[in-house]
């Protein structure tokens, strides 16, 4: 849910419609800072409606939920749905224990609680955490002179066995290690001195028509690494639509639907085996205590009390808040003031008939004058680069800017009400805590410092319309007996990648982007000659929309892409039934449509060939399977890199087939 909840959008639209025409014109034409000051008073009539909406997003700790999740976990366990059961148990067991530890549990019974916690961690596969907890329990027992029971001896023995097994498996075999070195060596490239994380084969250019963009400074081969960048900021997308908002705030049914929020770490985006819950809210979950601690220190300390509000206002507003929290008030203030100075200078130049800023930039030497670059002409993955991404204010409708403005004001008002302003601004308030809260609760206006933060946040929300990067992950779909793994790309998070955002859009891109956690890797998907611009398709939906527009006159004609999707679904049905030849025949027809619409070397073609290889492998069609494996490997290694999960699975299938007896290979 990138934009706010539908009810809040309707409320903002009604508020906009009720404004006087003169005020609408003033808000539409004013710079962002002035628009915030003028329109801040418009929030008060909508405050009650927003508060009611936030009541439907349950993010607080609710003791009654523990029994519900425990009982639901028991039901899932009884139906042999072990993964779902573990997820439900993990929401309650460790949290209950942590609450017992922090709320004065009797000291003499603490070893029992620690051992129970260690058992939970052990069963959830978190061996390191279990080891640390057992050490604490042993130390406590030794201090108190308590002897462990036979059950606890058994638990310690089991943990020791598993630790030894993990230690053995963590030592790579020589052959595998050597193979990995070859793959890593093939991906080594010389880093660019002017663009952080980019290859030396790229250069940063600027002109008034194309803006900032990257160009190949030498010939580039398919599969060559061009950029490796960690997101400056990322926020996990909670789920589809308004699924996290209850229809009625009086409802008492807790949701057991699995969403991204349950499957991935809210900080590093790694897949969760067993989550570490936030100590203050029921929404944020992490893969380790370290991620939980880092998130708390960097941003979640502020976001935690705002959880329901941020879910209601959408991911874009959440990204904007987290961006300014990570940057810090001093850096945000510096760049906002610099922007005001630049605007005044540009206005004076325009009135004097001087040169337009974009024209002046094109004549400057090197990259020093390009927005986002530092004083040394380097473009880094920094907040300065994020701040200088274009918000395209003039291209947004006045109604949309008003919605974004109200949403940002709502966040900043909440910061004032909850007494978090001082923490956000990284300064101590001169007032005492009670005086500060009283003052903030009665204030109708934002403080000057919060106005600066609000202006930056509004700029970021508008930037995200054109500069947001979806972090995607290949997620498995339900596939019957699991003989064929069907995957599709799923939007996992929304992020700012300052360097990746330099790439202009094209529906025929010459690069592919893959993700590992919060890091993006850009590879050339085709030969790129020196001097050619590097293009990225911002959204697969755009490409599909254009394809549908071209096919609109011949809807569901024999060449329409939907016909290929029908063939793909038929292949899945036959694969579930174990009819491998029929499945392969339908999938080969689907591949023809994919090749026609996306090209023979597209990543879509690679995914379809991967499925065909699985079907032929399961159908024991050895020679055809080896051929499909080779074709899929050639394409996916270019788009996803040799270390991707799909490439490794293809290599395992190939090894298995090649190790079959020669007599069997000859018959196939």
From TrEMBL:
<keyword id="KW-0862">Zinc</keyword>
<keyword id="KW-0489">Methyltransferase</keyword>
<dbReference type="GO" id="GO:0007507">
    <property type="term" value="P:heart development"/>
</dbReference>
<dbReference type="InterPro" id="IPR046341">
    <property type="entry name" value="SET_dom_sf"/>
</dbReference>
<keyword id="KW-0808">Transferase</keyword>
<dbReference type="GO" id="GO:0005737">
    <property type="term" value="C:cytoplasm"/>
</dbReference>
<dbReference type="InterPro" id="IPR011990">
    <property type="entry name" value="TPR-like_helical_dom_sf"/>
</dbReference>
<dbReference type="InterPro" id="IPR044421">
    <property type="entry name" value="SMYD4_SET"/>
</dbReference>
<comment type="function">
    <text>Protein-lysine N-methyltransferase. Monomethylates PRMT5, modulating its transcriptional activity. May also act as a histone methyltransferase. Plays a critical role in cardiac development. Acts as a key epigenetic regulator of gene expression during cardiac development via its dual activities as a methyltransferase and negative regulator of HDAC1.</text>
</comment>
<dbReference type="GO" id="GO:0042826">
    <property type="term" value="F:histone deacetylase binding"/>
</dbReference>
<feature type="domain" description="MYND-type">
    <location>
        <begin position="265"/>
        <end position="304"/>
    </location>
</feature>
<keyword id="KW-0539">Nucleus</keyword>
<dbReference type="GO" id="GO:0008168">
    <property type="term" value="F:methyltransferase activity"/>
</dbReference>
<keyword id="KW-0963">Cytoplasm</keyword>
<dbReference type="InterPro" id="IPR001214">
    <property type="entry name" value="SET_dom"/>
</dbReference>
<keyword id="KW-0479">Metal-binding</keyword>
<dbReference type="GO" id="GO:0005634">
    <property type="term" value="C:nucleus"/>
</dbReference>
<keyword id="KW-0949">S-adenosyl-L-methionine</keyword>
<dbReference type="GO" id="GO:0032259">
    <property type="term" value="P:methylation"/>
</dbReference>
<dbReference type="GO" id="GO:0008270">
    <property type="term" value="F:zinc ion binding"/>
</dbReference>
<keyword id="KW-0863">Zinc-finger</keyword>
<dbReference type="InterPro" id="IPR052097">
    <property type="entry name" value="SET-MYND_domain_protein"/>
</dbReference>
<protein>
    <recommendedName>
        <fullName>Protein-lysine N-methyltransferase SMYD4</fullName>
    </recommendedName>
</protein>
<feature type="domain" description="SET">
    <location>
        <begin position="200"/>
        <end position="539"/>
    </location>
</feature>
<dbReference type="Pfam" id="PF01753">
    <property type="entry name" value="zf-MYND"/>
</dbReference>
<dbReference type="InterPro" id="IPR002893">
    <property type="entry name" value="Znf_MYND"/>
</dbReference>
<dbReference type="Pfam" id="PF00856">
    <property type="entry name" value="SET"/>
</dbReference>
């Amino acid at each position: 849910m990138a934009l706010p909840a539908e009810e809040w959008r309707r409320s903002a639209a009604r508020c906009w419609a009720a404004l006087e025409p003169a005020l609408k014109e003033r808000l539409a034409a004013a710079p962002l800072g002035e628009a915030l000051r003028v329109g801040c008073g418009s929030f008060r009539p909508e405050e009650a409606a927003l508060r009611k909406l936030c009541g439907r997003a349950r993010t607080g700790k609710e003791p009654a939920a523990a029994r519900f999740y425990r009982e639901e976990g028991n039901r899932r366990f009884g139906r042999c749905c072990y993964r779902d059961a573990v997820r439900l148990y993990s929401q309650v067991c460790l949290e209950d224990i942590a609450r017992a530890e922090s709320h004065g549990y009797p000291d003499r019974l603490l070893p029992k609680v620690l051992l129970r916690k260690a058992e939970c961690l052990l069963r959830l596969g978190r061996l390191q955490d279990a080891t640390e907890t057992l050490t604490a329990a042993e130390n406590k027992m030794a201090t108190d002179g308590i002897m462990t029971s036979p059950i606890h001896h058994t638990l310690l023995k089991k943990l020791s066995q598993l630790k030894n097994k993990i230690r053995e498996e963590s030592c790579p075999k020589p052959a595998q290690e050597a193979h990995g070195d070859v793959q890593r060596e093939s991906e080594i490239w010389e880093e660019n001195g002017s663009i952080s994380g980019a290859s030396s084969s790229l250069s940063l250019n600027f002109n008034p028509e194309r803006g900032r963009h990257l160009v190949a400074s030498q010939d580039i081969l398919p599969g060559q690494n061009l950029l490796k960048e960690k997101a400056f900021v990322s926020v996990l997308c909670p789920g589809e639509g308004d699924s996290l908002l209850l229809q009625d705030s009086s409802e008492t049914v807790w949701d057991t639907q699995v969403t991204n929020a349950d499957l991935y770490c809210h900080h590093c985006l790694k897949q969760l085996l067993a989550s570490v819950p936030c100590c203050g809210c029921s929404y944020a979950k992490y893969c380790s205590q370290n991620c939980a601690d880092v998130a708390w220190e960097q941003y979640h300390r502020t976001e935690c009390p705002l959880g329901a509000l941020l879910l209601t206002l959408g991911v874009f507003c959440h990204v904007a808040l987290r961006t300014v929290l990570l940057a810090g008030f001093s850096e945000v203030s510096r760049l906002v003031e610099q922007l005001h100075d630049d605007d005044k200078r540009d206005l004076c130049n325009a009135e004097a008939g001087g040169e337009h800023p974009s024209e002046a930039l094109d004549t400057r030497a090197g990259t020093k004058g390009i927005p986002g670059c530092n004083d040394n002409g380097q473009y880094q993955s920094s907040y300065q680069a994020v701040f200088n991404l274009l918000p395209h204010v003039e291209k947004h409708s006045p109604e949309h800017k008003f919605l974004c403005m109200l949403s940002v004001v709502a966040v900043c008002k909440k910061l004032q009400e909850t007494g978090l302003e001082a923490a956000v601004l990284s300064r101590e308030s001169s007032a005492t805590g009670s005086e500060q809260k009283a003052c903030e609760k009665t204030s109708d206006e934002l403080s000057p410092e919060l106005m600066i933060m609000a202006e930056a946040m509004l700029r970021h929300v508008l930037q995200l319309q054109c500069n947001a990067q979806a972090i995607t992950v290949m997620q498995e779909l339900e596939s019957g007996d699991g003989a064929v793994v069907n995957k599709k790309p799923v939007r996992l998070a929304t992020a700012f990648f300052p360097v990746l955002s330099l790439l202009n859009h094209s529906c025929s891109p010459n690069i592919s982007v893959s993700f590992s956690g919060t890091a993006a890797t850009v590879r050339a998907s085709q030969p790129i000659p020196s001097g050619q611009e590097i293009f990225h398709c911002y959204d697969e939906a755009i490409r599909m929309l254009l394809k549908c527009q071209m096919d609109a006159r011949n809807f569901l004609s024999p060449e329409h892409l939907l016909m290929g999707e029908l063939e793909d679904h038929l292949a899945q049905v036959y694969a579930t039934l174990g009819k491998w030849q029929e499945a392969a025949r339908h999938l080969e027809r689907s591949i023809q449509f994919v090749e026609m619409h996306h090209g023979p070397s597209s990543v879509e073609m690679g995914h379809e060939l991967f499925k065909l290889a699985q079907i032929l492998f399961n159908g024991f069609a050895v020679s055809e399977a080896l051929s499909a494996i080779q074709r899929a490997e050639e394409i996916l290694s270019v788009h996803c890199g040799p270390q991707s999960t799909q490439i490794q699975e293809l290599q395992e299938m190939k090894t298995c087939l090649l190790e079959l007896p020669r007599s069997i290979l000859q018959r196939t």
